[in-house]
TrEMBL record:
Its main location: cytoplasm. It comes from the Bacteria. Gene3D superfamilies: Vaccinia Virus protein VP39. This is Ribosomal RNA large subunit methyltransferase G. One of its GO terms (molecular function) is 23S rRNA (guanine(1835)-N(2))-methyltransferase activity. It comes from Pseudoalteromonas holothuriae. It is found in: Cytoplasm. Belongs to the methyltransferase superfamily. RlmG family. Keywords: Cytoplasm, Methyltransferase, rRNA processing, S-adenosyl-L-methionine, Transferase. Signal peptide: none annotated. It holds the Pfam family RLMG_N.
Amino acid sequence: MTTDALLGGHDLTLHRFPLEQKNRSLQAWDAADEYLINYVLEHHNQAKRILVLNDNFGALTCALKVMSVSERHITNVNDSYVSHQACEYNLANNQINDSAVTYLDSLSEYPHNIDLILIKIPKNAGFLAHQLALLSNLTSETKVIASGKVKEIHSSTLKSFNHFLSEPTTSLAVKKARLIFSKTTAKPVASKFPVSWPLEKTEFTLTNHANVFSRDSLDIGARFFMNYLPQGKKPFKVIDLGCGNGVIGLISLDKMPNAQVTFVDESAMAVASAKENITLNLPDALERCHFVQNDCLSDFTADSADLVLCNPPFHQAQAITDHIAWQMFVQAKQVLKKGGELRIIGNRHLDYQDKLNRLFGNCKVIGNNKKFTVLSSMLRG
């Protein structure tokens, strides 16, 4: 969707991403972005070196650049491939020079020569704690301002800031958004991530970085899906789409000793976790694996895969939506060879069966329980 935003006193036209989804009713900025930008404009507009964490679709970066002081440099850190793509697009679409914007993924070290740190509070509390731990390594007395919806800022959020940074304070609520103010201390506090735990009923150990879904144990959807994965010795080309920590691809490699598996996720931490889990558990299979951070299967070669396995997410940033699942299904159809299969698991209430029937002309239930359904669609010639 295209949305016109008044941020920092400037009109901006902002898109969510990917662009083929731009006509959806989801907005590319929110009241927390607006509150944060207006506060910076009033109190910190001379800051030249700004570190921005979790800028969902580039609204913060665009506003900071358009109201820019001379020689302002922004370091944009995000775990999301889609968020970085959206930021690049929105800067270009608003004719904003991006030569002084540096993009870092969530696994990169933060720069130390920073005047101001801005955080859009992520939904994942563990990921926020990990980011705050990294900030605790920076020079002391650097101002930190975080923004989020009032309903998402809990006492535990403030405890996390207090644990890693200086004692936080909060603003009044404006349009159901709130700011948190803190400072770095230059007293490093270690992050607990990545974490590791044994995978039940196997000899494998899984490692998860901070922003990977169900990071402390196997999620119940993947646990159920593992019972319905193909096996055999055919040299299939398999894609673990939305791979998370790579557990589905890991089990597939174990069950299909001649398969080549491509692990795809838009999260840098997910792709890193998947690669570490194959390296740790099936090192001899690494030569049969590829690891790709990407917007679903965008730009993948058509007619190139025999099997796509997928546990679709139903949110993007803070928004609940099924458009990512639909994008995955459409692109899987494009990438599959004739006779290839898309096999997914989803919550029963999401009605993926109807979507797959419309898209593929067929859909078979191969497993279900009270919460989940495992579905298979074939690409017929």
